[in-house]
Structure of DNA 3'-5' helicase:
Amino acid sequence: MDLSKHLNEQQIKAVESTEGPLLVLAGAGSGKTRVITYRIAYIIREKGVSPENIIALTFTNKAAEEMKGRVIELLGPSARKVWVNTFHSACGKILRRQAVHLGISSNFVIYDANDQTNLIKNCCSELNINKELYPPKKIQSEISLLKNDLISPADYQSRVRPFGLEAVVARVYQAYEVKLRANEALDFDDLLGRTVWLMENRPEVLSFYQNYWRYILVDEYQDTNKAQYRLLKLLAQRHQNICVVGDDDQSIYRWRGADLNNILDFEKDYPQARVIKLEENYRSTKVILKAAGEMIRHNRGRKGKTLWTLRQEGEKIGYFRADDEQGEAYFVCKTINGLLPLGYSYSDAAVFYRTNAQSRVIEDALRRLNIPYRVLKGLRFYDRKEIKDVLAYLRVIVNSRDSLSLKRIINVPTRGIGQTSLDKLEALAAQLGLSFFETLGHIKEHPDMFSASARKRLEDLLDLFLNWQRFSREATAGQVLESVLEQTHYIDFLRSHKDEHEENRIENVRELTSALAEFEKRSENKSLSAYLDQVALYSEQDDLDEKVGAASLMTVHASKGLEFPVVFMIGMEKTIFPHMRSLVDQQELEEERRLFYVGMTRAKDKLYLINCRFRRIFGMELRNEPSMFIEEIPEEYMESLDYSHLYNEAGSSARDERRPGEAFRGPAPGGIKSRVSKTAHREGSDHNEKGWAKGAMVIHPKFGQGIVQKQEGEGSELKVTVIFKQGGVKKLLVKYANLQPL
């Protein structure tokens, strides 16, 4: 292979260093996917390795599909045998093949986040847990973190306090696991944890996969958690041919279990490891890269690298300080309109924010000015009710012990099976120790429990599923779906709603039939089980549709892996970005800085950083200081934009022929850095002089962030009443309260 035609010098080194452990530190926009795909092709073509002896692991289906597609382009159809999967997908395949070692059926169902939430809600109800005090979503998050850390219910129970959230999580965790087993289901985190258990407790299985996968490649290694780290260590023990690609400066998922130390300590784990840095960036201008590089250097926990590019110097980063969030939104909208005469389209612009709550004002402004936009959030296609309903039918056909799915659709479409019948069926299932589906086959034996009409409806439903199960053994996934829709009259059921969403729901179900047709066209395994596995492993970015001609709105987290010619980062204020939590935790602060770095390096041509003097938080208008991250950018890379220049005598900037940056430029006395510092000092001084005045923002190690409602007394007797976002209203003696002003 003539790699020099397609790769730069460092990329070639990364491709050709095939033997032994390798860490590829790949900066933003440095072509890491190209390196991984060419490395796979090189190992097959030049080293003579069989495609099936290579495994490449990613974090999203989108990345896996792109990677596999590129390898097939390079090598042809034989490359389909390479294992290119997400971690969860690969583990799911392993577990289906090795299910006998786990004591579960190979037809186990995979529960997605919504299924997990519903099951946890059921557990909370049965355990009489106050859902207001202990939200199921919070419990779900805690259980997920425990599973990612490979902590079992028994292990957790033995170490927690007998009260509070920990005690509740321990109880629910145990009940949740029992229900998963009863439904023959695994959740996302089980796919990883059970695979690790399998490799650690079944030496013959571990030995098989160690010999089978002689070369291991990992994308986004900085995002791996403990379970993924342990799995990779086990698989790589024998051959040590593990290549991990990642960027320590883009590790932004600590809150969901990612461990930055996995990439920082790679050379300790593999003393023979080689390190290659990919520092040439193919995305951003020199100014953007230099600014981002100087800012991220303030982090202590990093390997260090210097990105460079052959692209032009580029425009300075625009800094704008609005009076309030309406002014912030107005500036963004007018600037977007000003891009159109320069040859940009709406779809070239993206607005990033730290939290979803910030999008409302921007959305309102975009609508008022008739600027089309899309929001990368909300309900994914496979999370919509009508899709979940149809998929529930398919899941019961594949795994009749999936009681959660059966309960969802037992009366959808309406077939006269009421709550009373459901309660009786559930009681009978518990009495017999059977699943919901199995219990349907025993209702004849208990004629006193059900009315004749209810018994007939339940028996008819059982017959339907038994017929579908027989049909599914010979039919494709698409044919089974057609049969379900036809025999349940589900489309007619949707039409009967007669509301504004009727057509959308029907279109969604029709889109599902198209999705199955596409699945059958591109997949060797056309079974219903294979399709349901694929659906369960979708992520938010996999659902990103390409709405033409629309500006994009998203959290900075959602922007990872994307790029846009023009990026606006709003809410660049202390307590927002960086987030309030991080101001008392150095590790969290460094993660916030990495998140800011990710946002900056999504921009190709233009980058705008925007904040407000005043912003409504918890319903109160508060004065905000600029983000410290702005001050960490050398002023030579930034330019202050003057609000008064949004309009010209000829009309709005949308009609102005100059560049938006030129149209909005204003004086910046003393430079950006001094201006931000002076603003922070001036606006912060009011806070210091007032001490714990009404409206002051504070943070407490236990209760989190809050706002002072009132103060009483003075000196050592000073007391404050604080409204905490999570802890409620508290009256505290300042000298003992361990409060921190923000």
Q: What stands out?
A: The first strand starts at residue 22 and ends at 26. The radius of gyration is 28 Å. The chain has five domains: 3-88+203-280, 109-183, 287-379+545-683, 400-513, 691-741. Residues 648-670, 682-690 have pLDDT under 50 and may be disordered.
